[in-house]
Amino acid sequence: MQSEIFSSDDVQRSPISRNLARELAAGSIDSPDELYETAVDLATSLTNGHWRDDKYPPDERLDRAAAEQLVAAMKCGPALLTSRSLVFPQAIIGLEGGEPLRQPKLFYDRFLCGKPAGVLWTSSLLAPGLPAWAMVAESGYVAGQDPVEGVEFFADADEFSVFTINSPCDFAELCEEFGSVMMGSNRVLDWRRVSEVHHAVHLTFSGLILAQGVPVQTSTGTMTLNGWDSESTVWLRIPESARLGRRFLVE
User: Per-residue pLDDT for 1 more than 50?
Assistant: First the structure.
């Protein structure tokens, strides 16, 4: 069963959420938008090898107090921080004008940290015209042109299956159910088997801060969710009801 809540103990098990909690407790974060932006900056620095864990060295008392503060902030936060379901419209970045939606042609790429290639990625909207993924671009770790074009993406909820990752336990469940394949010397999730059952996999904000970079033990070995860096959804199959909405510029 996919997890519904998380505790201060969960926060302390993840390098992203532990450091995010300490930033919050230090008074460095003044709004939900800054909380999300800081989380993305931590995630992208972990992915790109620029992680530094010496700013907030482990301290049991301070870490627990900070973790409890983050849990409390999440409970009363806005929809993007607290939502456990996929909300439409989603946003696609970089789909050229007039280009139709096509069924993904899934393959593996050793440079993608175990993420599937040849698929469709969407993210939720922080505000009208501002996809969650835009914070990754603003982090400076992703090269790209400014502004880029986005387009709204819709699908009927009763016509697709989505697996939601809110925690490391959810990722472990996904790995146990669908197994893994070897990509070079790395063991990664068998995304082709996932696609036979689910149209999409959604990483929520809590999944981002709790699950990314946290190794989980499975029957096929140790697995780690890496490189997502943002609340986002990977579409392995496009449902028949999928359609595009208005286009907008992300500046």
Answer: no
- Measuring CA to CA, which residue among 111, 118, 31 is closest to residue 77? 31
Q: Of 55, 47, 120, 131, give the one whose Cα is nearest residue 89.
A: 131
Residues 67/21, Cβ–Cβ less than 8 Å = yes
Q: What is the pLDDT of residue 82?
A: 85
- The C-alpha atoms of residue 230 and residue 131 are separated, in whole angstroms, by 10
Here the tokens at position 234 are: 């990977």
Residue range 191-200, pLDDT digits in tens = 999 999 999 9
What is the count of structural domains for the chain? 2
Count CB atoms within 10 A of the CB of residue 182: 10
- Verify that 57 and 102 share a domain, yes or no: no
* Of 206, 211, 204, the residue nearest 189 (C-alpha): 211
Amino acid at 51: W
Across 23-48, average pLDDT: 93
Rounded Cα distance, 151 and 224, in Å: 31
Sign of the CA dihedral with 207 first, then 14, 188, and 95 last: positive
- pLDDT above 90 for 122: yes
Give residue 65's domain range: 8-77
232 and 135, same domain (yes or no): yes
Type of residue numbered 130: L
198, two tokens = 């689910």
pLDDT one-digit tens code per residue, 42-67: 999 999 888 877 788 888 999 999 99
